[in-house]
Design a protein that fits this description.
The protein has about 180 residues and is of the alpha+beta class. The chain has helices at about 10-20, 20-40, 50-85, 125-130, 140-145, 160-180, and strands spanning about 1-5, 85-90, 95-100, 105-110, 115-120, 130-135, 150-155.
């Protein structure tokens, strides 16, 4: 099994960070409500209210900072695991891709079904000098719905993506030629 470029860890990290950023936006209204509710119920017992509010806000901001650090560490660990469990292999008759941390997915794409092989480079990939290879197949239901290609290999160096694309196209053409002449 071939591995992705080691810089793919950073690609996965930033993709997951952006993808799960919405979680923070879900909790922000609850945090604001919690802070305002707590500030409205603070009572002064022998001290000044401004000192109590300042202490509460300091503790709350420290708590938020540590939660953010823990969240970033969890995303980093998940990105490392995603990198470790992503692999691809060009076999004699199929392209085999396996990936997944919690749910493993094994994809085998026969060369005879390969219709198109695209290389894409998004903003994050360009910053990391990486590419993604997309393998589109005949009869794939996800392609007809406008979803991603049936086979996707992210985090490849530009050179590796080009070589892999050429090899897959060559093998697909050889398979079609053999099928036509009846081998």
């Amino acid at each position: 099994m071939q591995k992705l470029n080691p810089k793919a860890v950073w690609l996965f990290f930033w993709m997951y960070l952006i993808q799960y950023l919405f979680v923070l936006f879900l909790f922000v209204p609850f945090l604001i409500y919690f802070v305002l509710d707590t500030l409205s119920t603070l009572s002064v017992k022998g001290g000044s209210l401004s000192v109590t509010i300042a202490g509460f806000l300091t503790n709350f901001l420290l708590f938020c900072f540590f939660c953010l650090i823990i969240w970033l560490i969890i995303i980093w660990v998940f990105a490392k695991l995603a990198y470790e469990y992503y692999g691809y292999e060009l076999r004699q008759d199929v392209i085999r891709i396996e990936y997944g941390v919690i749910w493993k997915r094994y994809v085998s794409i026969p060369y005879s079904r390969v219709q198109n092989v695209d290389i894409t480079r998004g903003v994050l990939e360009r910053l990391l000098n990486l590419s993604s290879l997309h393998i589109q197949t005949a009869g794939a239901t996800s392609a007809s719905l406008g979803a991603m290609a049936e086979g996707r290999i992210p985090g490849l160096s530009v050179e590796t993506a080009e070589q892999l694309r050429e090899e897959i196209i060559k093998r697909a053409n050889q398979t079609r030629t053999q099928e036509r002449i009846g081998l």
